[in-house]
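ok so i was messing around last nite and threw this chain in just to see what happens. nothing serious, just curious
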Amino acid sequence: MRTLIIISIGLCIGFILIGFLPKKFQIIAGIIFSLVWAGVVFWNLTLGLSHGYTLAEELQIQLLIFFVPVTAYWGYFLFKN
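result:
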């Protein structure tokens, strides 16, 4: 459940950026969003590791948490423009 909540938050942030920023700022916002989201995912990874999960277990989930919102942002950006 926590994974779905985090992915949903990332999707909401990404689509808010796409929806409210002018077109000329969306590339810069996408880069910043991708980097900040990577930081959030890294923090979530360390949190999972501190609760006793192995890196192999956590890495699969964290990759999903990172790539779904970031891919949705860039995919929507590329196909929208």
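not much to say yet. The helical segments are 2-20, 26-50, 55-80.
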